[in-house]
Specification:
Blueprint lengths: L2 H84 L10 H13 L15 H7 L5 H14 L1 H17 L3 H13 L4 H21 L5 H7 L6 H11 L4 H23 L4 H10 L1 H13 L10 H9 L11
Length: 323
């Protein structure tokens, strides 16, 4: 066959083969595309179906935990109560027997209801109100702060501290000297009558209701000269009540009695009275600290106006108090 004829006949064959290859390629691409779409769709559908399941599992777990939490808290509380009940008395939040007894007795002996007649005495405050030195809560607070820090409060605290130490160590000679000094240290007749009457009443009631071995001997060695701070010191030492808490309780009772007298004389409401007592808390604490560290040579008073008030009260025209 001639070459030209052969070329003419081969051309359609190449075209057909190319067309078939192209068609097959297109079909393959179409099939690949369809397969890819189906696969992607399947993955998407699968993920869509799985996602609610994955999301639902934590929700079910959270709901289960929420239901279990109150039960765990209840069990924990019950366990804590059981452990607290089983804990022996005497831990950090509990007092031992002697500490509880000391607190109980101090609260009794130095409360306003203990019958020593403290409500009958004002320590010269009645004259200070009459003279216009005390007219309201503020002036009462200033007056009492001076009496505590530089007057009878500090002096009584020093005498109480030394008498308590002498009685605790069974130093009878030293206790007698301190008792005599305390009786002679009153600046006026009425103040001496006030402190000695309360001291004698305190000793008599304590011996009648709270007697203790050795208390009678301590009282006897004072030779009858027992003023109020000495009486408190001797009784507390006989009952082995620590000096530090005795001092705090004594000064608190002394201050409370002075405020009670001022409240009746000014007059002053209950809320203002408590405010005065609260504002005097630092003064009571500092006075107690100084009195515990002071020697008998440190005794002294600088409250001349208060001393004059206790003297002039004796000749006051109208009186509600005995001093």
């Amino acid at each position: 066959m001639p070459a030209a004829a052969m070329g003419t006949r081969r051309k359609p064959i190449r075209i057909v083969m190319l067309t078939m290859i192209t068609h097959r390629t297109t079909m393959a691409a179409t099939v690949l595309t369809m397969t890819t779409v189906i696969t992607i769709t399947t993955i998407i559908m699968t993920r869509t179906a799985v996602m609610p399941t994955i999301t639902a599992i934590p929700m079910l777990m959270a709901a289960s935990k929420a239901r279990a939490r109150p039960r765990r808290l209840a069990v924990a509380r019950a366990r804590a109560v059981k452990q607290a009940a089983a804990q022996p008395i005497g831990g950090h939040d509990a007092m031992n027997e002697s500490e509880a007894a000391a607190l109980y007795r101090l609260m009794t002996w130095l409360s306003p209801s203990f019958p020593v007649g403290a409500f009958s005495w004002s320590s010269g405050i009645e004259w200070a109100v009459e003279a216009g030195d005390i007219v309201d809560a503020a002036s009462l607070r200033d007056w009492l702060a001076a009496m505590l820090g530089q007057g009878p409060g500090f002096c009584d605290g020093v005498l109480l501290a030394h008498a308590h130490r002498a009685a605790s160590s069974r130093d009878e000679a030293g206790l007698r000297e301190i008792a005599e000094l305390a009786s002679a240290f009153s600046p006026s007749r009425e103040r001496q009558l006030e402190t000695s009457a309360q001291g004698r009443a305190f000793i008599d009631i304590a011996r009648a209701a709270w007697n203790r071995e050795g208390l009678d001997r301590m009282v006897a060695c004072c030779d009858g000269a027992i003023v109020y701070p000495i009486a408190v010191a001797v009784v507390c030492a006989a009952h082995e009540i620590p000096l530090a808490i005795t001092m705090q309780a004594f000064l608190h009772a002394l201050t409370s009695n002075w405020i009670s007298a001022g409240a009746r004389l000014i007059p002053l409401g209950q809320t203002d009275s408590q405010r005065v007592l609260a504002m005097l808390e630092p003064t009571v604490a500092s006075t107690a600290k100084r009195a515990l560290q002071a020697s008998l040579e440190d005794l002294g008073s600088a409250t001349f106006r208060a001393d004059l008030a206790s003297m002039r009260h004796e000749t006051q025209y109208t009186r509600l108090f005995r001093s």
